[in-house]
Amino acid sequence: MTSSYGATTTADELVKDFATEIKGKIILTTGVSPNSLGATFVESVAKADPELLILAGRKLEKTQQTADAVTAANPNVKIRVLQLDLGSLAAVREAAATLKSWSDVPHIDVLVNNAGIMAVDYALTPDGFESQFGTNHLGHFLFTNLIMDKILAAKAPRIVNVSSDGHRLNPIRWYDYNFSNGETYNKWHAYGQSKTANILMAHSLAQKLGPRVLAYSLHPGVIETNLGTHIDWSVGFDGLRAVDKALGNKEGWTEYIFRSPQAGAATHVYAAFSPSLKDYNGAYLQDCHIADPWVETVKPWATSPIEAERLWKLSEKLVGQEFTYSSS
Asked: How many other CB atoms are there within 10 angstroms of residue 4's CB atom?
């Protein structure tokens, strides 16, 4: 499938093109603190008159800052703020219960799982999971499934997982997803594992819930946001490049091309609203098109249906709950 959009397309441009798809929708986005791709996404989408924007984040004060910015620019758009700490399964369950109790929100048209952490020092979540895997994957896995009734109540719901071409850095470490309590830890390998999980989860959702639900994952590009503010990039890029070189990835020898947050959030908008994607459930996207594994970074471990099903079963085990859906 070809697309008329590309790496320089902006979120605002796509919002104009997809305005009729956005108008009247209830959209839930995780990870929307200022200077994030999530914030850029909701600020752009608000211009097309959605029914309701639900902004979910760990720190309410930062989430509220983005809500206030959206309201200032679009005073007629309704906004709800939801506290969601993806690093704690108990907190995820609490957030899901809160959302489900909102009787004035009968359904969720679009869920954008945008929140995440990147290349942090080794740490465990309160539930005992390596923090990137726990926050980036397990938290979203549990939250998405717990609110699935709201999603299925929508006419044509979509779920978007924000992944990264950083999935190239590691497949799922089936027998050591916790990195031996830090002994085998490499922060970039851990990031890669969590981003692989984001893609595989979208595959599973498409397989288990399609065509009722459309699910996609995406690489937004390389953007300077608050995701990497904790990293000393004077040495951080060297560490990342060393991992790529050890793996033989082309990124070990190529320069990174940075793009604006508007260009980065464009693929969010494309995944969430493009009508042209309806026949491509489960696709992995970049630069506002379906990524081509012949010329772009798409690792086979992230697109394998076997790996996807293995991860679904492992995730159910780790969160302590099974999620089964009928095929119709």
From this structure: 9
Are the C-beta atoms of residues 84 and 135 closer than 8 Å to each other? no
**77 in Cβ contact with 70 (< 8 Å):** yes
Q: In the chain, at which residue ranges do the beta strands (DSSP E only) sit?
A: 26-30, 52-57, 79-83, 110-113, 158-162, 214-219, 222-223, 258-259, 284-286, 289-290
The span from the CA of 261 to the CA of 95, in Å, is 28
CA geometry: angle at 137 spanning 280 and 195, to 5°? Answer: 65
Helical axes 37-45 vs 60-73, angle rounded to 10°: 30
- As a whole number of angstroms, the distance between CA 150 and CA 168 comes to 33
pLDDT in tens, the chain (328 residues): 667 899 999 999 999 999 999 999 999 999 999 999 999 999 999 999 999 999 999 999 999 999 999 999 999 999 999 999 999 999 999 999 999 999 999 999 999 999 999 999 999 999 999 999 999 999 999 999 999 999 999 999 999 999 999 999 999 999 999 999 999 999 999 999 999 999 999 999 999 999 999 999 999 999 876 554 555 645 567 889 999 999 999 999 998 888 999 999 999 999 999 999 999 999 999 999 999 999 999 999 999 999 999 999 999 999 999 999 986 5
Half-sphere exposure of residue 319, counting CA atoms within 13 Å on the CB side? 29
Concatenated DSSP letters of 294-326: TTS---GGGT-HHHHHHHHHHHHHHHT------
Identity at 277, one-letter amino acid code: L
Q: Which residue blocks in 111-249 are alpha helix, DSSP H?
A: 131-132, 139-146, 148-152, 187-209, 233-247
Here the tokens at position 24 are 């009247």
Is 280 annotated in the active site?
A: no
**Axis crossing angle, helix 37-45 with helix 261-273, rounded to the nearest 10:** 60
Catalytic-labelled residue, pool 191, 216, 270, 284: 191
